[in-house]
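Dear support,

I submitted the protein below through the web form. The confirmation email said the job was done, but the results page showed an empty box. After a refresh the structure appeared. I'm attaching both so you can tell me whether what I see now is the final result or a partial one.
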Amino acid sequence: MNLTSPRRSTPNDDDTTAPVELPHVLVTVAADGTVTATVDGTLFASPDVSAWTRATFGPLMDAITKDRTIAVRVEVRESDGSVFTDILRTRKPRRAAAPSETPVPETRRSRHARRVPRLAEVTGHGFVPGEDVAVATIVSHTDATGTGEARTLVDLDDLPDGTHEVILFGRISGTLAVRRLT
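What the results page shows now:
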């Protein structure tokens, strides 16, 4: 039978490990939804003139934790007296993928993905707001804006040789806009 009690550490022990202390964030929510935050008792002011609000709680935490590179203990005190406490941990750092030592042979698809497109903008008016607008030589579709305007970007390399006009066709309104590419 063991009559000795478990060993307890005392401040005089030669233990070199220090306790972990997280920054303490205190967030106080007012009845109107504005928020004040302190970090270890120091006010954490908004970077712009406006005050922190419930809607800016995420950006507030990002600013305090420096985009989650610092772990913090967060205490939120609501205006009704309720209190919530949590620990926001750091994100695991992402490692960059090591470049491959063996070169990959270039393919037609990789050359196509690497090229810079030559674009032409085509606009037309008189469409029904939100309607589907066909782009002919039908290379794509676009939608009309809330004001009835349609806009598309045409990659000139996708057009057959000799094509010099683009048609925007409103599928509901029947509106046609023919534009010459120059």
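Response: this is the final, complete result; the empty box was a page-load delay. The two ends are 98 Å apart (CA to CA).
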